[in-house]
Each structure stands twice: as C-alpha cells, then as structure tokens.
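stage 2 :: seqdesign
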C-alpha cells in the first residue's frame, strides 16, 4: 500500500481548534502511536482518518488517493474502539462476520429468510463464517463463537473486536485506546499480542493512547501530541534519549525527568549546580538542565554532581526511588538507586549524572546541542 500523508489538518468544535494545522506522515506498514494527555485531539485525528468526521481544512492522502473524498467504507481502514462496540444481540460469530456480510450480501441477502430460499446466499454465508472462524482461531476465541458479548470477559470482547477488524483484511488498522478498560495484567498480555499481530499482518497500525508505557513498548514511532499539535514524531528510544523539547522530555519517562536551572555564559559555557557542565554555541542566558531519575550513578564518574538531603524513599523491588532536595535550589529531584542503597531520610546524599545523560534546553524549552566537558570542573 502507501504512506498516509496528513497536511495542514485543522478541526474546530465551535470556537475551539482541536487540531491545528497538523502535519503527519504515517509510513506504510508501520506501527505509529498518537500519545498525549486527555483532550489533546488524538481520537479526533483518528476519526478524521477513518471518515467518521470531517476536517475544516487540510488533506489526508494515501498514495494517490484523496481519503477525504472517499466514504468511510471505501477508505480500507478498520477501527477498534475502547468500548468494543459489539452488537449485543449477535453471537461472536455474527459479530465477527458482520463486515463481510455488509460487503458481500446485498439488502435482500441480509434478510433473515434469505438463506432459507437462496442456495447462493447460503454458500456465501458459509464462506463468511469460515473466514470468521479462521480469524477467531488466530486470536484464540474460536471456542466462543456461539456466545453473546454479555457472556464474555473484557479481554475476550476486545479480541472479538479485533477479529471483526481483521476479517476484512484492511490496509490500515485504527485503534482508539483499545486496552483502557482492561486490568493491568491483561493489558500487558494484549499489548504484546497486538504488536505480534502487526508484525504478522504487515499493515499500517495507528494506535491512540495516553499511556506512555503502552506507546513506548509497542510502537515503531510515537507522535507526541499536545493541544492539537504534534510536538515530536520519533522512535521510542529517540523520544526518551533525545527529546526535542522540555515538554516532550517531561511527558516521556517515569518518574518525570528532573530539571534544574542552568546558565549559559557569554563564552558559551553552561554552568549548573556550581559546575561547568558543557559548552554550546548558542546565546547566553538562563537554560534548563535535565536528567532522568534512572540516569544517576553512585560510582565516581565524570559528570554533574547532584547533592541533596534525602526526603521520601520509595521501595520498588530491585530499586529505590529517593527524593533529594537540593539545598541551593530548594528543588526536589527523584533519583533511582539500587535496592539496598543506604539512603536515609534526612541524611545528605550525593549522586553523579554522567555527561552523556544530561539534556540541556534553552529558556524557551528547545533542546540545545552541547559539547560535553571531559573534565569535571567546579566553578569557584
Ligand atoms: N463532537 C464534539 N463536539 C465538541 N467537542 C468535541 C467533540 N469531540 C471532541 N471534542 C473536544 O475536542 C477535544 C479533543 O477531543 P479528543 O477526543 O480528540 O481528545 P483525546 O486526546 O482523544 O482525549 P482522550 O484521551 O480523553 O480520549 C476535547 O476537548 C473534546 O472535548
């Protein structure tokens, strides 16, 4: 198939612009996730691609096809919703078969009596049910084909919704928070299954979630959204290691990235926590220096020394999460330490952030490229 190219997409509800001049290319066959806080416009974007709503301006193209000119059914997209959207009065078999019935049988063929009088309708229905059975087998729900949705668990219902999307072999799957209603264990298991399904089918998946673990663990690329705009589109590792802005850095990673103030001097040196940490060719002035809680080390290593007073210590299995209050700033940082580290509340404690784990952003929050200092230097 082809890439999906979205250009200048704007959608308003009344006076509120929910999507603002949004541009995005979804590559053919990739697993792309739209990640953002509730209300940032993720579902709206998905609905515009599916044809369930229309934009005010902008284009959505797939190869040489203008998707906006096509009806939802002609777009070759299948959508899977958080709420499953199954027909309660139909069996699992009938639910899964529904897209093929709608496509393969005319109005008369869909009437309940048609199969009694028409051998052609009977044959087509038998083929459709065989296809439904095959998809159900792949998703391990073939033992449930005669049940109604009310007699299924949440995970089973979501599998039926997936099967219904798969049965017509669409070229694009659109997922709107499909796992939100499930418990943590099931969510974890289904994440892996959905990713495997993507790899087997080899078609484009566009997945909406506000859960960064879900986004980071499943996707080829993640588009981070905020207030109707895309802040960055990148593979999960790039988003985590090289966030383009402080906003993205704060959104991705848990616990949240630590940020302490820094200063860029006229000679380009960056100072932070009374240490010379790096140099940048940019303008002088205040900046933000950031590091992830997991990036700190207790070993002596070249890097930024962070010293503070231990506050709350949280035990998290193989590690501890400790809050450090930095006396100079009065700011609290969270650092991740190996379990068993002697970090007692009220005591002074010191960690090092290796140079390569430091992120520097200008006063406006945009990432600065920096030259690492190779010698730990204290500023008098
Ligand atoms: N039909 C509508 N009429 C009016 N406002 C709407 C409509 N649909 C969505 N909105 C508003 O548009 C904004 C974006 O909604 P959208 O559902 O796209 O967000 P989202 O990022 O998917 O959020 P969530 O994760 O909570 O589902 C919200 O403020 C929402 O209230």
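stage 2 :: out
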């Amino acid at each position: 198939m082809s890439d999906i190219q979205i250009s200048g997409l704007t959608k308003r509800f009344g006076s509120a612009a929910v999507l603002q001049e949004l541009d995005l290319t979804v590559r053919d066959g990739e697993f792309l996730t739209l990640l953002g806080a509730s209300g940032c416009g993720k579902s709206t974007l998905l609905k515009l691609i599916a044809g369930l709503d229309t934009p005010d301006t902008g284009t959505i193209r797939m190869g040489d096809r203008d998707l906006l000119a096509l009806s939802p059914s002609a777009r070759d997209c299948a959508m899977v919703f958080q709420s499953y959207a199954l027909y309660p009065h139909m069996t699992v078999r009938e639910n899964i078969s529904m897209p093929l019935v709608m496509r393969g049988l005319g109005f008369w063929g869909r009437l309940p009596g048609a199969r009694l009088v028409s051998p052609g309708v009977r044959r087509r229905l038998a083929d459709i049910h065989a296809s439904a059975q095959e998809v159900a087998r792949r998703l391990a729900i073939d033992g449930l084909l005669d049940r109604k949705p009310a007699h299924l668990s949440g995970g089973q219902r979501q599998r039926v919704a997936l099967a219904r999307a798969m049965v017509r072999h669409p070229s694009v799957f659109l997922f709107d928070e499909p796992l939100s209603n499930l418990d943590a264990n099931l969510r974890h298991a289904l994440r892996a299954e959905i990713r495997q399904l993507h790899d087997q089918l080899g078609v484009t998946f566009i997945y909406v979630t506000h859960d960064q673990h879900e986004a980071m663990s499943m996707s080829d690329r993640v588009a981070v959204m905020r207030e109707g705009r895309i802040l960055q589109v990148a593979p999960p590792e790039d988003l985590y290691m090289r966030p383009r802005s402080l906003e993205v850095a704060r959104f991705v990673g848990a616990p949240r990235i630590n940020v302490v103030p820094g200063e860029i001097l006229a000679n380009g040196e960056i100072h932070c926590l009374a240490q010379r940490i790096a140099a940048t060719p940019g303008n002088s002035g205040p900046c933000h220096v950031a590091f992830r809680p997991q990036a700190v080390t207790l070993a002596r290593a070249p890097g930024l020394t962070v010293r503070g007073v231990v506050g709350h210590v949280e035990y998290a299995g193989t590690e501890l999460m400790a809050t450090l209050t930095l006396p100079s700033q009065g700011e609290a940082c969270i650092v991740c330490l190996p379990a068993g580290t002697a970090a007692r509340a009220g005591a002074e404690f010191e960690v090092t952030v290796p140079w390569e784990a430091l992120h520097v952003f200008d006063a406006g929050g945009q990432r600065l490229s920096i030259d690492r200092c190779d010698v730990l230097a204290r500023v008098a």
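stage 3 :: structure notes
- Residues 119-138 form the longest helix (20 residues).
- The two ends are 62 Å apart (CA to CA).
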